[in-house]
Design goal:
nine-stranded mixed beta sheet, about 25% strand, single chain, Rossmann fold, Dihydrodipicolinate Reductase, domain 2, 2 domains, alpha/beta
């Protein structure tokens, strides 16, 4: 029996999800929704999807629908997710899970009440290089990690449209790009809990009501300190999206480019692992693995990871960062 899924949103990221789902023989994409019906119809034609709609109302109560992939502006993540969860559908939510920690908690409450699954699109957890660095850290090869640096920067580029409107996005570069760096390092470190957050956030490049520049310092409950930089339109970036540097007591690990640098007497030895060649930085295979895993969770009724807990952690860190930037104070989360 096929798993029947609808795509809510027909923008850039929905193409990745559609391509991923169409590699799975036991999945059928039954419908696509876009506020612009013409966009939905074009998307449906492109991927041979039977139905196209301009709102979710006709899908919410459908009995022949197992799950939805929500890839809309952030403002609609929580209300759409709650509607579908209340009506017996599992939900995949693009990151961030909502526009505030409170929204995340509401989603979790409804999901648990109705015994439905929620997965959040923190997709770097499905990347081969990221998993290699996580395994390296977990093995103790570089010792205790005491400091990290992570990046969510667009160099000489920034988005337009709903991304730059606080009402629709909830935040700017931090909510868009910084969340990738936050979840990537948390995953690599073994998913510690955030203890403290300090942040400086500003708007340097555009005439919009969201941030395009951010520096965060996160203290995790395992004692590691993580520096996170977020930004749009910056003249330089130290690494691509989710690039992470990890400083250990025995050595150093770097994600994107991926290599290890180990102590050797008074010098160091650099090792570049043999990993699959990437076609693109944000490669299709990452999104395909995400969809494979989500569908498997639907069948086995296993709560996905990244899911409610992981999505909530990121929202709480982002909330704390905006609060810290406003007050100039460290925000304690434990």
């Amino acid at each position: 029996m096929k798993t029947r899924i609808a795509l809510i949103g027909a923008g850039f990221i929905s193409d990745y999800h559609a391509r991923g789902l169409q590699t799975l023989a036991d999945v059928e994409i039954v419908a696509v929704v876009s506020k612009n019906l013409e966009n939905a119809q074009k998307f449906a034609l492109k991927y041979n999807i039977e139905e196209a709609f301009n709102d979710i109302s006709s899908l919410v109560k459908r009995d022949d629908l197992d799950a939805v992939i929500i890839s809309t502006p952030n403002q609609f993540h929580a209300p759409y997710a709650i509607d579908f969860l209340q009506n017996g559908k599992d939900v995949f939510l693009e990151k961030p899970m909502g526009i505030s920690g409170d929204e995340g908690r509401k989603i979790a409450e409804v999901a648990k009440k109705h015994n439905q699954l929620v997965m959040v699109g923190h997709m770097w957890r499905f990347d081969t290089d990221t998993r290699y660095i996580r395994d390296t850290v977990d093995s103790g090869t570089i010792g205790r990690v005491f400091k990290t640096k992570g990046y969510g920067i667009h160099e000489n580029w920034g988005p337009s449209g709903w991304f730059t409107k606080k009402e629709l996005a909830g935040g700017g570069a931090l909510a868009d790009m910084g969340v990738h760096a936050i979840d990537a390092v948390r995953y690599i470190l073994g998913d510690p809990k955030p203890a403290k957050v300090y942040a400086r956030i500003s708007t340097e490049f555009g005439d919009y009501d969201v941030d395009d520049t951010g520096i965060l310092v996160i203290t995790w409950d395992n004692g590691t300190e993580s520096i996170i930089e977020s930004g749009w339109w910056h003249p330089h970036m130290d690494g691509p999206e989710a690039s992470t540097s990890l400083f250990g007591t025995k050595g150093y690990a770097n994600l994107f480019p991926t290599f290890l640098k180990m102590k050797d007497g008074e010098g160091t030895v650099t090792t570049v692992p043999e990993l699959p060649k990437r076609e693109d930085h944000c490669d299709q295979i990452i999104y395909t693995r995400q969809m494979e895993y989500f569908v498997d969770c639907i069948k086995t009724r296993q709560q996905p990871v990244p899911g409610l807990v992981e999505g909530q952690m990121v929202l709480d860190i982002v909330d704390a960062a905006y609060k810290s930037a406003k007050t100039g104070q460290v925000v304690n989360l434990i």
